Amino acid sequence: MSWRGSVWGCLPNFYTGERNYSHNSPSEFYSSLGSEGFSIGDTSGTDEEDTDSAILYGTLRGSIVGLRYYTGVVNNNEMVALQREPNNPYDKNAVKVNNVNGDQVGHIKKELAAALAGIMDNKLAVVEGVVPYGAKNVFTMPVQMSFWGREENKEAVLDQLKMHGFKLAPPLKEYGFGSKWISGKNGPTYSAPVHAAVHLTAEQLKSEFDKLFEDLKEDDKTCEMEGAEAVGTLLLPHQKQALAWMVSRENSNDLPPFWEERNNFYYNILTNFAVKERPKNVLGGILADDMGLGKTLTTIALILTNFQDGKPLPVEKITSDKICRFFFIIMLLYEKSLFLLYEESSNTVEPGVSSVKKLEAIPLKFSGCHLKRYVSGMIFVFLLVCTASIQSAEKKYSEDNPRTTLIICPLSVLSNWIDQFEQHTSQDFHLNVYIYYGSDRNKDPAILSDQDVVLTTYNILATDYGVSKYDSPLHKIKWLRIVLDEGHTIRNPNAQQTKAVLSLEAHRRWVLTGTPIQNSVKDLWSLISFLKLKPFTDREWWHRTIQRPVTMGTPGGLRRLQSLIKSITLRRTKTSKVKGKPILELPERKVLIQHVTLTEEERQVYQSVKKEGKAAINRFFSEGTVLAHYADILGVLLRLRQLCCHPHLCTNTSSSFSAAGNNTPEELRQMLVTKMKLVLSSGSDEECAVCLESLTLPVITHCAHVFCKPCIYEVIRSEQPNASCPLCRNELRVEHLVECPLEEELDSSNGKKDDQEWISSSKINALMHALIELRKENPTTKCLVVSQFTTFLSLIENPLKKSGFAFTRLDGSMAQKKRVEAIQCFQSSQAGSPTIMLLSLKAGGVGLNLTAASRVFLMDPAWNPAAEDQCFDRCHRLGQKYNVIITKFIVKDSVEENMLKIQNKKRELAAGAFATKKPSASEIKQTKINEIKALIDL
DNA sequence: ACCGCCGGGTGCC
DNA sequence: ACCGCCGGGTGCC
């Protein structure tokens, strides 16, 4: 395939039709969950504790008045929403009542409204309503209200009500969580309230959720479908299944989940809402296959295969395209006297797609000025006709029948999408893919909606939207299809990017994610809301009908969720089977450990550093200050690990043991920053002791412990006024937290490598020996040489050059453009392409594909075995043709050997830990201490 | 609303 | 009668 070039971009634009840019902002009215008030940043999580820990205070019968002034209708037993209306000109206490659809039904009678106003405004409780009977009344109808809130607010709520002469009744038998699963002819019946039900822990939930998918592995989703002609790659059986499922979802006319047709009305069996018009199902869903099963490829196949009425996307055949280009080039040749023309893609922007293609130099010379003018004149007329017809043909797709698919992905996988489009689109077809990224992105909606595919990132989308909701080009277009890659990115409903995504318009909607649920069911809301499944687009209905029943363990709650998931999700894991065969048959993967013995000199340096460090750490132990010196200890270990690799790595020995008192605040800050950088760069892959995930937005405390900023803020908030460090119980204050200054080079020792003369090391010798042997065996075998220390990789470059190896390099510090080049270069099978890639352990996102390599040399062990495994998976994945052999170099009698032992322990833990609970801070502390002891032989 | 409430009309039986 | 009672007008917040 080829990229939309400037040749096309320069064509006059004949399409001037005005579009009706309508905006459909998500209903934002339900903010009474008590969750909007507190938010500590974009990381999802803590802000909704309130709703999860809500209890039912009791119920109250009231009345809805003014029915005849509004159009909203309800059924008996239908849920209604209560919404404050502080700007009502007649009563500042007014409380509106809306039906599930958001149409106003009436108001709460004023005396009751006066009592509710304070409760609702101060978020003391969430008030929910159901109309028990009298739904057909003309003037007023009853409403059964239930009050939910946190335990500590219960008294305040009861007092407020009492002041206005109201008293809550205990939870009613007849009122619960909506109707039962299937309602009978006599109207729905209700499940008993489940106040006593046990709240599920996050872990229980997670394992429950994993069960959700078990049943849908071998469903009726086993139909296969071939991709259209323009798909240049043969699909694997499970991908054909996914394609068939996606196509059927897009062309389906089924009712959405939980809707039933009953005597010409459509009922939602969860809320009892009814409408005359058939509710629309989402033409799309969630593709939740495990990583590596080819979600990207399947999606590309979908784009090419299912355009309209089940027909493939009418992509341009490359031939006609070439003719047009040819004429256009001639015209340019004349007009601008160009003899060399580069067709530079106008969409080649930051991520650095190498889509610059050199066209043949055409040294054309015309004789005679008149002839030239004549010829070019004719060509110009021809082109006008040509483009006019093309433009009018495209216009057909631009209004009600859009042709464009919008793909939104994290920046880290943007280049992967570009590669995959290139790889999987047949050579004979020209697919217009516009990369909407970079400061020079084209914001003309007419251009964007003429593409086949527009590819962008969550950040760009959120940025445009943040500047102006109404000028954001992506929001001016109604897309044929939107695909959210790594869709769980939008799990935080308060994040700007989530809001930006939710307000996009499209006919078809897809979410791709390997982990639809990261932490809890509430992660799903943004996804479901994006899919526009009524009535869940509104947080209140999602919460009342799904989230609360599930988290409170209401009977049927999980079943309800399962039913929802099942109807819109396809998920296969690496171990799933198609027709009895495993989905993926990957070649074998072997891990060898190659022991290395240090030379006498190396050993001496190592021992002396070890002796010194061990003494210091011993001192910390006897003083009981191990955790206070955690960063220092990591520093000692880091130096030892570096010495195992190469003596030159260990240059910044600026011993920071001198934590002595009389420092200026600035010195203290600098010291903390240094320590934090040490922790972050030590490759220890430190987890945040609060969330137990890897650090996001790391900050360091005065006691030198590193946490995620949002996590530690939450600790301080919840323990106020006197918060203490979760690890060492020292005083903790927001103003004492030090943030990590901009992510510059987080490399441990990136200094004076040039002024030192190059020397080898035992490990380098071992590597070179292995590489040269391998080359003798088979000179085309490609290898990854992996280290956590980029400086080490630089040192390895030298002997590689000397021995005549062609190599390339990929590390975290490289610009996106360079990375893409390095990857493409390495993956190429051309003769002379590099056979070695120097790879930093953590470089690249999950999508990084280095299947050209079948050998891996891991130069130094990682703390976290998962990080190693992830790295191996970059070549041991779909597309790998050979058995993969991994060689780990481990220095005998060193910290590295001890690290291996710890790795094994961690592996065992991870394997058995599926259903076990999260360890506490003190357990983490103990684990860390034990690790330190084991590492330094204490 | 086949109600409640309001306020004007009215006033023995 | 500074009441009761009647019956018409009226009706969310």
From TrEMBL:
Name the record gives this protein: Helicase like transcription factor
Residue ranges occupied by any RING-type domain in the UniProt entry: 688-729
UniProt-listed Gene3D superfamilies: 3.30.70.2330, P-loop containing nucleotide triphosphate hydrolases, Tandem AAA-ATPase domain, Zinc/RING finger domain, C3HC4 (zinc finger)
Keywords linked to the UniProt accession: ATP-binding, Helicase, Hydrolase, Metal-binding, Nucleotide-binding, Nucleus, Zinc, Zinc-finger
Subcellular location: Nucleus
Matches recorded under InterPro entries: Helicase_ATP-bd, Helicase_C-like, HIRAN, P-loop_NTPase, SNF2-like_sf, SNF2/RAD54-like_C, SNF2_N, SNF2_RAD54_helicase_TF
GO cellular component, one term: nucleus
Single GO MF annotation: hydrolase activity, acting on acid anhydrides, in phosphorus-containing anhydrides
Main localization of the protein described in the UniProt heading: nucleus
Helicase C-terminal domain boundaries: 766-925
PROSITE patterns in UniProt: HELICASE_ATP_BIND_1, HELICASE_CTER, ZF_RING_1, ZF_RING_2
Domain Helicase ATP-binding residues, every copy: 276-534
Single biological process term from Gene Ontology: DNA repair
Keyword Nucleotide-binding part of the UniProt annotation: yes
